[in-house]
Amino acid sequence: MLVYDQKAAALLNLPLHYGNNLLLLRKVKVVVNLKIYRQMNATTPKPEVPSSRAKLLTASITQTLKKLAISCRRSWFRLGFFFKHEIRIKEFIVIEPRVLCGIFLLVLSGFIILSPRPWSIAMPSLTGELYVTENILRTVSIFIGIVFSFILLSFNVFYKYFGRFTFITFFRSKEIRFIFTFFISTLILLVYTTTYLKESTMRDSYGDFLYLVSVVISACLVLSVIPVLILLLRSSQNRNNIKILVASFNKEWTESEFLNRVFHGEGKGSRTSDRDPINLLIEVGTAAIKDFDRQSIFAIKKECISHFEKIHRQEHDFVYVSPFEFYGRIGDMGRALFPVAIKERNEIAAMVMINMLFEAEVFYIRNFKDFNIHELDEHIYDGIFFGVAMKEMFVKALQFNEDGVAEHIIEKCRSWLEVVINDYLPGIKYDYPSGQRFHTDKPSFLVTGIYQSMQKLFRNVLSYKKYQLYKQISHLFSVTDLTIVGSGNTRSTKVFLLQQNGLYNIEEFETFIKFIDSEISFENYPFGIASSRELDEVKSLVPLQYELKALDILFTQNKLNVYVINSIKAIALHSISILRDDNKTGKSALQLILKKIAQIKSYVSAGGSDKQKEVYILLYKYLEMIKYFSDEKNLTDKDIVEVIQNLLSGFEMKENFERELNVKGYFVLDHLGN
């Protein structure tokens, strides 16, 4: 009963103590029961739910408004960026507001204080209109001379940067056409207005209209002269003119060149040579090189490569332009500008020309199938053009002692060879016919041709006694070994490429090593960097065999040192590691290394030089390391273990050599410095 009473009190919104007053509760019993009944049987009213069509419409409108708001914000931001950072609208404000406001306030003050006339705005009389119009006509005529002075200045600036291209495109500038048309139209309007007002005997609405239009347009003309001339001066030195010049190598130019040959013969191309885009680019590039204008040089390179790609894709107005012809013209331009850059000691420009030819060559190699202009069944890349261009540039760089440029050319030759190995050969699915003793296929001739052209290029280093460049040559061969091993070619192709690279590598090494005075180190030792990886992946032992030949060459030149011996030791340790996995290549490599150590050891006699005795001691030390590593790895091949043990026991003169060198104060340093 108490629970019921408390519930009743809560339903009636009464204090809790009223629930104990039974008299009061009896009086309201009916009311309470009615409320409880209604509460127990009442259903919560559901909110009105809009229909699905209304939901979709609302969501669509909301989404559209959001997109519109985002688009408006983006457009506003782009507009602000355009005026603030591209057009730079502040630079066109040529009126000083403080001066203008000062004069205006002075006149206004004088008018308010001293003028006897009432304040009113009205059209002047016919005589006044005629007077104003005639004076405006004289003022505009004076401005013509100022404008033509600015145009002449812009012409000289344009000619300085772009040469004879000025005569083709300058007077087609939209700024010149705008200001010229505006001036002529305004003069005609002013003359007409003056004539009409003079012939009128009284004022009329049409005369007032002509007067107002003439005043407004003349004011706009005067105010627009300076901004338009600023734009004209900007465009006169804008690098976008180079883009326009390169883009003129299009369908219209191709048709003009073809028809010129048809009507005037093959040998009479001078009629169009003055407007030839490449000839004009050579003039522009020459001026930029002499002025050390890097931006123009970079723009020429960028636009030429970009245009080459557009022509290849046959975009827009370039459908009938031959990409192969433009490829050749880029080469002609690069070979023409490079000597100018070298002569002017402009190293940056020279490197840009090399990069331009290289990027064009890379694009040609990767898309060589599309350059089959003669539709040959067997279309093969030969690399002759780029090889000849690099040789010419290399000789020119050496003649002018531009060693930095020469190093850059060697680096680009390495990159060129890398593109052929990684892109061209896998692209044509080349598989070297390993069963043949002599290669007769065209791709293998391409590889040997590239190496022969580079060998001729390197021989110029000897002619000009630039022996320090061998560091880059060494880097070329060592990195190429890694490129071959990691390429996507077949195993027989990799072995062939490793043989070619090793053959020319050992020839260059033997030729240059006698002229190198410094110690053999990573910079001038082009072996060993890919030997361990080659044992794992290709398993041909080709790089190792050439490196072991290099040991003989170094020993005869008395230049075998700890760096080279340590390189051989590292390969031996790797061979032991893979020998535990029953890798026959590892065993063969280890046998070759041990045989070479024994052979070099036999070259050293008791009466040998101190350098030979040092080599003898180092061979023993590093052979001990090999022995220690084999014991640590639990090498179980008895033949190898026996060879190592016998070889170590054969160093009978080791202690005598150490005593002799110690007496002389000759320290034998290993890679640990002891």
Short synopsis of the structure:
The chain is mainly α and 674 residues long. The protein has helices at 2-11, 22-27, 29-41, 52-86, 97-114, 126-162, 165-169, 174-199, 205-236, 240-247, 251-264, 270-273, 277-290, 294-313, 323-343, 347-366, 384-399, 403-427, 442-463, 470-486, 491-512, 531-537, 542-556, 562-579, 584-603, 610-632, 638-649, 654-664.
Protein architecture, described:
It comes from Pedobacter paludis. Among the domains are: 1-38 and 65-87, no CATH class; 91-237, no CATH class; 560-673. The protein has helices at residues 2-11, 22-27, 29-41, 52-86, 97-114, 126-162, 165-169, 174-199, 205-236, 240-247, 251-264, 270-273, 277-290, 294-313, 323-343, 347-366, 384-399, 403-427, 442-463, 470-486, 491-512, 531-537, 542-556, 562-579, 584-603, 610-632, 638-649, 654-664. With 674 residues, it is mainly alpha-helical. Mean pLDDT is 82; it is low at 1-38 and 40-44. The radius of gyration is 45 Å and the shape is elongated. The chain has 28 helices and no strands.
Main attributes?
single chain, 28 helices, disordered N terminus, membrane, DUF2254 domain-containing protein, transmembrane
List the topology elements.
Layout: H1 2-11, H2 22-27, H3 29-41, H4 52-86, H5 97-114, H6 126-162, H7 165-169, H8 174-199, H9 205-236, H10 240-247, H11 251-264, H12 270-273, H13 277-290, H14 294-313, H15 323-343, H16 347-366, H17 384-399, H18 403-427, H19 442-463, H20 470-486, H21 491-512, H22 531-537, H23 542-556, H24 562-579, H25 584-603, H26 610-632, H27 638-649, H28 654-664
Helix pairs in contact: 6-8, 6-9, 8-9, 10-13, 10-14, 13-14, 13-15, 14-15, 14-16, 15-16, 15-17, 16-18, 17-18, 17-19, 18-19, 18-20, 19-21, 20-21, 21-23, 22-24, 23-25, 24-25, 24-26, 25-27, 26-27, 26-28
Transmembrane segments: 99-116, 136-158, 178-197, 209-233
Keywords: Membrane, Transmembrane, Transmembrane helix
Protein name: DUF2254 domain-containing protein
